[in-house]
Amino acid sequence: MKVAWRNLARNKGLSFINIVGLAIGMAFAILIGLWIKFELSFDKFHVNGSRIAVVNKNTIFNNQKNTQIGIMLPLYTELKTNYPEVKRASRMDWNNRHSIMVGEKKLNKRCTHVDPDFLEMFTFPFIEGNSKTALNDINSVVLTESLAEALFPKGEAMGKTIRVDNKYDKKVTGVLKDLPVNSTISFDYLAPFEFKIQNESFVKENLTNWGNNFLKTVVELKEGVSMEAFSKKLAPLVTTKNNKLKNQFLFLHPMNNWHLKNDFKNWVNVGGKIEYVRLFGIIGIFVLLIACINFMNLSTARSEKRAKEVGIRKAVGSHRYQLISQFLSESLLTAFLAFLLSLALVQLFLPLLKDIGFENIHFDFTNIGLLVSVLGICILTGLLAGSYPALYLSSFAPVKVLKGLFRQGKAPARFRKVLVVSQFAISIGLIISTIIVFMQIQKAKERSLGYDPNNLITVEASDDLAKNYQILKQELLNTGLFEAVSKASSPMTAIYNSWDDYSWEGKDPNADMIVSSVMTEYDYEKAIKLKFKEGRSFSRDFPTDSNAVILNESALKMIGYKDPLGKTMKLGNQTLTIIGITENILMENPFEPVGPMAILFVPDNFSNLFIRPKEGADTKKVIAAMAPLFEKYNPSLPFEYHFVNEDFNRKFINENHVGKLAGIFAGLAIFISCLGLFGLAAFMAERRIKEIGIRKVLGASVANLWLLLSREFVLLVILACIIASPIALWLMKDWLQKYDYRIDINGWIFILTGLVAVIIALITVSTQAVKAALTNPVKSLRTE
């Protein structure tokens, strides 16, 4: 250890480069490891998780194979009654927000309506109450700990009454510990699903309807039951119950796949976030590998300086395995120092990464298992980085070394070149990938939405808003700050209704077609600035507009009408007249084509208000004008609003995280590579210092010497570009395949990346090349 420490201290510059490079590589390997550990931990705390699944459905609509999680209401009773394989089952609605009032307190919280089995299936520990009886009364609620504390600060929630939606009084029958952050299921409180059946006519009317899908159903199978076999048994149930419902097949999606493997294409589970887990795992290994390559490169480059040491050690009796142990101990010491620095870097970087998916990640220094794991990374890094130098240095022949006949052959130089090329190939590949990811995100962001999301405010509906809507709308317009106010059955970032009972002249009777449906009222087109291709919107001047419909371009293409305005189609038994055609309105996945959509005049069905301030209106004044009116006409809820463009941008969260992380990793990779290149260039310049002195004496200019020292490194970087480009092209083409709406990869990306890499490498090498070229030759030649 003394000798190892002395060698580090004697070569401070190279030691610094090695330690910093390894520390950065290890820090980000640890960060990625923590992130992967967190992503893989989702839902693992449920005791019976391996036997729990959600029922999904495969369908064929519009000649496309789709997979949906929305299921019909009668399935629950069927599973409980006729399938002995099912131990427990529960219905779940869509976690909608509801107002909660206790005295003067008003909150807007997420409620999930479930069946009593839910609390037995899932491991959500109780603070008060118990899972067997908490949801037996239809007017009961189970609160999470944080909500209970917000409503009842003194901790006396059990047995208390809360008012929901300013309409129903409900009794608190249980308090749960706050849900873990690694839970796919999230809610603020639970209520019995039976309450919805008793109090919502729509739900009650669909108790036996196998064609209306509007909830989720989760099941827990009995021990020993094969989930795959039960899926096959369940598959034909819908058609069995209603032979008009063709091409609809049920299957179980296991809980273990909910978070990471939740994407389906053509009825096949194609993964999901698991792709990013694998991707960043590979990137983390590569970043650490680049840091290890620096160590190998600089250690083998310094081999001539260690040659006499090896010769003397061997001459006085050292065995090769002892020399290998000596050199490995040096690399392990370097790795350990880098490891200590990496722990500090992890703590420094974590707060900076909170906005890109690391908000729930932390390094727990009390977790012995975690510390052992990261120490294992340190040891593995030290062994990996030091293995080749140890084997190479320990192989020197003492006779040649001590006689002064030792010279490095071409093999070590070639190996160093291979390592440099490998480093830069990985770095360049990451840069190319990052550029393509950002271009793909930008393409989706710049796509025409069919409406204007900017300066558009949306507010979620409530019973009070429904009752007071017309007077609220008028008072908002009377302020003079607003251009239009309207409402619809869906927000601008989702579609809540899709129906298959549309028909039209010439429709194939055997085709299953589905049309997304948005119900709205007057001024919808003004509020969202709907972009029409032809025709008009709903108007008070036309009383018959209650039976009118507006179609998007995709729906018109499906129907096939040449001159659609004035023609009719049917929704069930209702005859609708087409009065307008809009551009395709993008409300769902920005990376997929927009499907057929119909806009209907149904003013009583709405989930969101849309408020368009006048152009140039001050946002603070607009919100200040809205707040008292909503407090007055929506007394059960605190005033909460959203800007639609911000809601739309949230659709890119995953892609933005991937792009930013890839950018950080690419920057790190190129930085670590240049760090090694800097050290290698310094060492090469030092080795050739007498040659440089002679060349200067014989008339070589600074430019000649700069070119001499830089040329080899630049050629290596160009070779790395040539190797990295086709590999990155292949990988990114494969990544883009999952998006229906995607960019074309252009050649300029590779040329630009190559130029940037060469310039960065040239700047790095030039610092040492120019320094060596400017050195006074008298200093380097005076000993000759």
Describe the overall structure.
The two termini are 37 Å apart. 49% of the residues lie in helices and 19% in strands. Strands 18, 19, 20, 21, 22, 23, 24 and 25 form an eight-stranded mixed β-sheet that branches. α2 (12-40) runs antiparallel to α10 (274-301), α10 (274-301) runs parallel beside α21 (653-687) and α12 packs across α13. With 784 residues, it is α+β, with helices and mostly antiparallel strands.
Strand content: 15-25%
**How can the largest sheet be summarized?**
8 strands, mixed
The average pLDDT is: 88
Radius of gyration: 34 Å
Structural class assignment: alpha+beta
Q: Counting H and I runs of at least 4 residues, what is the number of helices? A: 25
Number of strands: 27
How far is it from the N-terminal to the C-terminal residue, by CA? 37 Å
Helix content: 40-55%
Key features of this structure:
elongated; about 775 residues; six-stranded antiparallel sheet; 27 strands; eight-stranded mixed sheet; alpha+beta
In short:
The protein is α+β, with helices and mostly antiparallel strands.
Strand-helix topology:
Elements: H1 2-10, H2 12-40, E1 52-61, E2 64-68, E3 71-72, H3 75-82, E4 86-92, E5 96-102, E6 105-114, H4 117-121, E7 126-128, E8 140-144, H5 145-151, E9 161-164, E10 168-176, E11 189-192, H6 193-199, H7 201-205, E12 213-221, H8 227-234, H9 237-241, E13 248-254, E14 263-265, E15 268-271, H10 274-301, H11 303-315, H12 320-349, H13 368-393, H14 398-403, H15 410-445, E16 457-460, H16 463-478, E17 482-488, E18 498-499, E19 502-504, E20 515-520, H17 524-528, E21 532-535, E22 548-552, H18 553-559, E23 568-571, E24 574-582, E25 597-601, E26 608-613, H19 619-633, E27 642-643, H20 644-649, H21 653-687, H22 689-697, H23 702-736, H24 748-773, H25 777-781
Parallel strand pairs: 6-11, 8-10, 20-25, 22-24
Antiparallel strand pairs: 1-2, 1-12, 1-13, 3-12, 4-12, 5-6, 5-9, 7-10, 8-11, 9-10, 14-15, 16-26, 16-27, 17-26, 18-20, 19-23, 21-24, 22-25, 23-24
Helix pairs in contact: 1-12, 2-10, 2-12, 2-13, 2-21, 10-13, 10-15, 10-21, 12-13, 15-21, 15-23, 15-24, 16-19, 21-24, 23-24
